[in-house]
Design goal:
The complex is a heterodimer of chains A (313) and B (562). With 313 residues, chain A is an alpha+beta fold. Chain A has six helices and twelve strands. Chain A folds into two domains: 163 residues, Sandwich (Immunoglobulin-like); 97 residues, Cytochrome c-like domain (Cytochrome Bc1 Complex, Chain D, domain 2, Orthogonal Bundle), CATH 1.10.760.10. In chain A, the strands form three sheets. Chain A has a five-stranded mixed β-sheet, with no helix packed on it. A five-stranded mixed β-sheet of chain A has the order 4-10-9-6-7, with helices on one face. Chain B has 562 residues and is mainly α. Helices cover 64% and strands 0% of the residues of chain B. In chain B, α3 packs across α14 and α14 runs antiparallel to α15. The radius of gyration of chain B is 23 Å and the shape is globular. The N terminus and C terminus of chain B are likely disordered. The chains are: A alpha+beta (313), B mainly alpha (562). At the A-B interface, α1, α2, β7 and β9 of A face α3, α5, α9, α11 and α12 of B.
Amino acid sequence: MNFAIFPPEASRQAHEVDLIFLALLAASVLILLGVLVTGIVFAVRYRRGSPAKRGQLPEWINREVEITWTVGTLFAFIFIFWFAGVTFLAEYKAPPNAEEIHVVGKQWMWKIEHPDGAREINELHVPMNVPIRLVMTSQDVIHSFFLPALRIKQDVVPGRYTTTSFNADRPGTYNLFCAEFCGRGHSTMGGRLIVETKANYQKWAQAQHHVMDVAGQGRALFTRMGCSGCHEQKDHTIAPDLAGLYAGYVQLTDGRVVRADDAYLRDSILQPTKDVVAGYKPIMPSFKNALSEGQLQLIIDYLKTLSGDGGTP
Amino acid sequence: MTDATLDHAPDKPGDDHLGYLSEGGHTLWSWLTTTDHKRIGILYALTITVFFFIGGVAIAIARLELVTPAQDLVSADTYDRLFSMHGIIMVWFFLVPSIPTTFGNFLLPMMIGARDLAFPKLNLFSWYLTAIGGIFVFVALLAGGTDTGWTFYVPYASNYSDSNVLPALIAIFISGFGTIATGINFITTIHTMRAPGMYWFRLPLFVWSMYAVSLAIVLAPPVLAMALTAIAAERVFGLPLFNPADGGDPLLYQHLFWFYSHPAVYIMILPAMGVVSEVIPCFARRRLFGYSFMVYALVAIAVIGFSVWGHHMFVSGQSAYANLVFSFMSFMVAVPSAIKVFNWTATLYRGQISFEAPMLYSFGFVGLFTMGGLTGLFLASIPIDIQATDTYFVIAHFHYIMVGGTVSAFFAALHFWWPKVTGRMYPEAVARFAAILMFFGFNFTFFPQFIMGWAGMPRRYGSYPPEFQIYHVLSTAGAGVLGIAYLMPLFYLTWSIFYGRRAPANPWEATGLEWQTPSPPPKHNFERMPVVDTEPYAYHRRSEAPEVETQTDQNEQMGGTP
């Protein structure tokens, strides 16, 4: 699809929100048409010099008209408040048996950890028809976890945990956005929500564990080749911290800002003086002849899994 | 406000009649040291016009960036600075001061039959504060801009942004005191300087709107000043106030910010309501329908507007029950707004309606404000807001109110009182064309944003998924039309200052004391102090008015004549 008119509904909750939306839309169109048609009819009928009747106003136009539409509006609005408020409260409490997935936001990526230990970045895989509860926090500024297909948005705030819950019922791939402005990488701090059948979700989770085995070999190389000697110093004065580096943005000495993708990591290992991170000296040796292609890939795979809190996967 | 007294008004059109424009001196110095409320109004008008176009250029570049999904025209960093400076300039250096400091300054004393504001020197001081604040905006711009958005959310603004946050904070802080001083000046003037016979319920709605907005601009900005000072203290001195890493609370900042910034929305819209309430009765030749309800509605909006701020924070992590309370209050504040729309429409009934440019702008205001208000009901409903907040739906909503509403009303006022301010008539045909173009350009720009917003397009994105491109292209094209419509008055109004037809004292045959003095008015407004003996908007015989306006009966018992 090339453009979206109405967002997909991937849960029953999304459908209920849309019912309120459509009801409000219908009411609004009626009110707007009422005002516009009345205004236009008056403007045409009572244009200057028209033959329409003027003079004494009809008896029934009096204070009561004003009171009637004031009170009418008041009750209409209280009704909408009640209608929307009840839906909100019903969705507010997560079911007690919900699967808990942990989300950490940081400039500019989403790190997600599943109950079985599987981890992913900027993607959220969930099984369909399983209630899910997201427990979220941020490492730096305020972000907002936004899943339009589920009509869910929740700010992710440093220093506290916020939660939101859903039960997706339509398999598919949907947008995941950061909705709270968080700096220059804000528009790229998003990814995909992947809702799949339980079986497919299991398969995916298995594969994640395989990925982590691969990363484990990468970790061993990382230590053996001496990378950790500089990059894992506590204060990071000699070499930058690599945790959470992948897919984020890096400020370089020459003022450029580059994205830390596979190519960047590869270049930085083989030609370390090409893109030097701001604040560091170009002292890293090249590993051009020290690593095979396969070993290089293992190290990059390992770096991708680094969660950003300094721990191993 | 007597009917058919136009011939009493001293009106001596001639080359030598320039009123306040020449009395008091022709030098730049005489303008920079003036205490004449009319000249100060002009100083403000020039200042905010400059900022309007700077803010406009910033968003024009940002909108061009959005034509393609990729971040390609400017860097992400530049894009952030563009929309942030657009917001900061448009909110604090155009919308908040727009109508009160220009038309409010110019007209308020004349409308109540006074020679000046209560504190003329304080009035000039207010302008200097605004201008000094403006200089800091230029400092922020020249240093490379601020990238925090106009909301300065912490801890991004306090601890993470590497842009020029400090000059922007100082700019808003200083100009805020200018606003407070203006509010105090207006309140005092309305209380103490009304002409004989100008009872409270004979005040034109524009004066009431200035009164309501003054309450808000005296009470709200101190809270903002405090919140911004706290950010500055955290940035500069490292005081641990908002950053949770140091034990601070970022939500506290949001509460403080919106406690100011929601009333600020009403600061922007109430004066617009006042303008439209003057223009519609004049060109419909009808008394304003439900005058007293309109007054109560203005004051109710200003007061209830202080208890709805939490509706900006439905997804921030505040408690669910707080959400419900703020949702309820938001529906309550919508009631008086709806009443006003009904009353403006009803004012047209049995009128003698003509369609000069100010009337067209006012019609545009009513339509766009209604759209903005109705979508406000969507956002007051919590489940809808969860989806729509921080998306283009919200962007569209508040632009319908602030741009469709306030800016339309600003142009209505500009054309309506242009003859009074300059002594010249503007060219009517081209002005009507600009008014219609502005209405269509506006809808063209902002309506697509409702659709993409609900579909999930987040705000403040310089790059975005391709399924939203069609809406961004439409929006940018509309912005081009809107830009032309905004530039047109700049040219034809400037032209009219030199070549326009000379304006009589009361070209619209309007009621209101400001029309009983020559155009442009003399330095002290009235050659003979006016005495008010009728209710406002006496465009037709009392007997043809609905009984709604019973409060005028009381005024009559106090010595008025029908």
